[in-house]
Amino acid sequence: MSWLIFAIVFWLAAWALNSWLAKAHGAERWARFLIPALFGLTILILWEGLVLGLNISPVILPAPSQIAASFAASTDILREDFVQTILKGALSGYLIGCGAAVVVAVLIDRSPFLQRGLLPIGNFVAALPIVGIAPILVMWFGFDWQSKAAVVVVMVFFPVLVNMVAGLAATDALQRDLMATYSASYWQGLFKMRLPAAMPFLFNGLKIATTLALIGAIVAEFFGSPTMGMGFRISTAVGQLDLPLVWSEITVAALAGSGFYGLVALIEKLVTFWHPSQRART
Amino acid sequence: MKMVAPVLTVLAAIIVLWYGATVWLNSQWTYDQAARAGQEVSFSEVVVDTMNQKRPVLPAPHQVAVGLWEGVAGQKITSKRSLVYHGWITLSATLAGFALGTGLGILLAVGITHSRAMDLSVMPWAIASQTIPILAIAPMVIVVLASLGITGLLPKAIIAAYLSFFPVLVGMVKGLRAPDHMQLDLLKTYNASKGETFWKLRLPSSMPYLFASLKVGVAASLVGTIVAELPAGATRGLGARLLSGSYYGQTVQIWSALFAAAALAAILVVVVGIIEQITLKRMGMVR
Questions:
Q1: Which of A273, B81, B213, B254 has its CA 20 to 30 A from that of B200?
Q2: B73 domain-assigned
């Protein structure tokens, strides 16, 4: 019971502190990091307090401390799964899929006919439940990481394609005329003007695709996998009611997902430093 | 109508490619069968055979069409083999989850636009929550809720809601902040309260943003429902149909379930689009 009271008191105190911080120092840089961090910490403490205070069985919801213990105890398994699912499955599929989408976008950009035909279909396919093809691709490419990579390729292809085509069309007539007065060839125009101009759009698609890639790789493992991998581990650990291990896998997935997203966002910052959205904010 | 010809051309090209791939992928089986029986097969026989296998590697488009037609029209609607039945199970969970997610997204957005503390503390976590491959925990949510005695529609709806709340949240925050200073100042000169500003200015001006994100959200919640139906021995719904098809090698069944899901997604997006047009027209916001 004391846990419960402590958690609730902590929650109220943190909430008051956050409100005060937001009012008094909301514009300052350190507050922008501290406030979300405090909010996250509050949720963890509230979670811990509720689980311990209300005696919730770990089979239903393990406390963060139990998850941390399980995480520390099974780092070997987690690393193996991370390599299998994230590095082999998701990352290779992501690179192939995004690369293919960019190349196809450049190709169809030369033909307005193809653009008009492919874009509506690409938009439509991007909204479809593409994870559904996972069982088919697992059947075709076998149980190992190749089938996961294939699912990821299909999942990331269309969002990136649609964004890249939109990006290649993002130059205005004035800019194109300028390139024409320089008597730039098609390729010069492409590399010096249109590809850089397409980068903000491309990275928009790439960022959406990071999450899709992880989802695709993990969900594809539900349809069959070797005896490792995050999706495999999650489904078997749920079967054994080893929920702390499941949550550890989720933590790994969350860290990998955030890290992956952060990496792409960092590259975006380096590549599109000229774009208004990236310029230093006051 | 400039769009129709190119789209049809591309569709035709896809179907031609598909037939080609069917022959290529399925011919192996035909050759194996013929070699086992000690026969030679001519190319035309191979082509005919690849189009009509019972468990092809890649079913031909017409096989999928037949499977789809039989699933939709060839069964009683209550039959376990009817795609309408499974589609309805999926649709009901999708709509429940979509409603939950939209409600949550709008509520959070209202909170975020009105409280600076909430903006600073919730928004980064809402964004972070989307970099987490949340679908991966779908089976766990289902199992945990089942152990609490909650089964059926609600667990699936929760996952669908989780996927659909984020686009709505982001769109609504943007929309509720869309009114510019001139408009806000005008309401201030009218001595409007916070509530009046919300109902008469912020909410109406957020509608275009809301509908744009509703379209993304409804597609996302369908994906969530289908994935939620995959694990934990679900026997009903399009996702379960996909899974049982993959267990028993019924490729035609997988593809028809897939196309049924695609059609469902298209219908949902179109319905939201129609509601959007009607609403915006009545509000006088159609461009």
A1: B213
A2: no
